[in-house]
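#struct-pred
JK: can someone run the complex with 1-deoxynojirimycin? inputs below
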Amino acid sequence: MTIKYFLAALFIGFFNPIFSQQSKDPIIESKIEALISKMTLDEKIGQMYQAVGNKKIEQLLPMVEKGEVGSFINVEDNQLVNQIQRTALEKSRLGIPLIIGRDVIHGYNTIFPIPLGQAASFNPSIVERGARVAAIESSYNGIRWTFAPMIDISRDPRWGRIAESLGEDPYLSSVLGVAMVKGFQGKKMSDPTSIAACAKHFFGYGASEGGKDYNSTNIPERLLRNVYLPPFEAVTKAGAATFMTSFNDNDGIPASGNKFMLSNVLRGEWGFDGFVVSDWGAITQMVNHRFCKDEKDAAEISVNAALDMEMVTLSYKKYIPELVQEKKIDMAVIDEAVRNILRIKFRLGLFENPYIDLTKPRPSYKPEFLADAQNAAEQSVVLLKNSNNTLPIDTRKIKKIAIIGPLANAKHDQLGTWVMDCDKSRTITPLMAIQEQFGKDFEIIYEPGLKFSRDKSLEGFKAANAAAKKADLILYFGGEESILTGEAHSLANLNLQGAQSELITALKKTNKPIVFIVMAGRPLIIENETKQSDALLYAWNPGTMGGPALANILFGKISPSGKLPVTFPKMLGQIPVHYNHNMTGRPASGKETMIDAIPLETRTLTVGCTSYYLDAGFDPLFPFGFGLSYTNFKYDKLTIEKPTLVSTDTLYISFELSNIGKLDATEVAQLYVSDLVGSIARPVKELKRFDRIDLKAGETKKVKMSLPICELAFYGMDMKRNVEAGDFQLMIGGSSESGIKSNFKVTQ
Ligand code: NOJ
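RT: done, structure tokens with the ligand placed:
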């Protein structure tokens, strides 16, 4: 039964603590109108154009002087930024400043873990801090606009851009996306260290068919609204200044030409009042999509769809004048685009304060930034296996350690994608950190075995084996190089690259315990290597301070607390695999017959008739939300304060969480809800809350969580967001796989 209660307004409760969408400032609005009334069409089109700031940027200054450029992407020198702004302010007719944008994705100079790694921390404050540090460092170079956060829901690790995402879950991506926006934009957007955020890629890009970058997506509207759009709505409510359209077409309509999404949903339903920029060349690429006959057609469609600024290509510049003359574009549409762009320039304080104060020292790699980056890396590492308490390294038993693998000392490759502005000599690798921090207490033997992750040569195996034989423990640092994820870096094979699997197999033969530390921008297919390892740590691309972070975890100064923000498949053919899939009519029971158990010449339909793979089963290698600790936690005494509620109520729950091990640690407690009957088939379960809880060894804490019932709303049969009355199951636990459960009911 559907509650006749449309929750558009109420739903804001979800974002209450973070709600900060700015209302329009009348003073700014009147300044915008005054400017627009004086602008020529060419000057308006200038605002709608983002040019590339390359080495020959000086040649573009005459255009700036004429008001023909609104923004630059990739100007890398702050003196040049001052020169450009001076030209715009002092020499152009109307003195409108430019907005300088760059991809500051997970750090500028100080590199934090890749966003997917940060998501594994399940810690919004750490994510916010990472964005703040990036904003402080990059704004000193004149960058006042970053193309982040990337909040594309990503369920396919073949897609190289999964590294830039916050994972597969809409709620986690919403909370962390909002945290990034807050970090970038700061307390006040006009602060010189605040940079405008850009929610990207709008929309659906993470669902590229087959995980191949730029590919089409086919997301029906209900799925779009229930899964892919919530993070974008959340960051809008949190005041994200700009949006970027994505490259993909969804169900045939390229995002840059989708008027329904850009006008009706983004601006109409959500009230977004910032500006939208296209992705690089995405407007003219609508010709390649065979959606537009030529660039003029593309410009007409994008402008009329309410896409305000064109990144790099020139279709707006070239064709808007004729299109206006031919009455195919109304001047009111152009004015609205300019209004949106100017609004953000005003909010950033660029009119009053366009220059960088170069008398101030460069705020890069400050000790506190490095400490923050290390903290983020420590919290992002996920312990996936730990047989026989192999970790933390037992100083009484282990005296000699062999450090092996292509990523033990790879200053560039532990940084991840999008690290254009950092100095790799600042990177501290695990080898460096272990030698420095623990070199006195242990004998460290370093033999990489392979020179880089794709290295297929077996030349180094002999030395690596010899090192392993001498040691009490092997630390194998492998995975994939930074360049194997990111834009246009999709892979069809997610096994370990190069001869890494062979090397691990060879090391296994030494019978020495192996700790496999994976550095990668995506979940890799590592079922075999997991079996061969005694302990497994997933470190993603941990950034500048990845070395000290990993050393602290390996040697037990810190217990790992990261949890997986994405499901790990056992085999490639299981993709897409995600925890919050819909219930099927024939869900797997766990009693299915696996391929090797099928008797010869069995008649068809004798294996179980449920939704699973004969060879892979139905469960993944590691589920969403999973991550071990050096201690054990016990969840108990789940209490629901009032188990029968109405849609305007808030559900209050409490439970006891105990650290029943011998080490202090942090647990990410997760609350999942299963809607037991709906007007449409419902997901198995959905993450609704999480909290990081610190517990001393032996300590028990009573944990409370609350959930406004309006957050159970979803787009059902009638394509409206409603809470549907009925029974729900709640689960509290340390992963999406299991936990303690209780039921509650929503009556109306
Ligand atoms: C293309 C990428 O898709 C986008 O994420 C990025 O921000 C722009 N290029 C600008 O570099």
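RT: quick notes.
Residues 103, 147, 200, 279-280, 487 surround 1-deoxynojirimycin (CB under 6 Å).
The two ends are 9 Å apart (CA to CA).
JK: thanks, will look after standup
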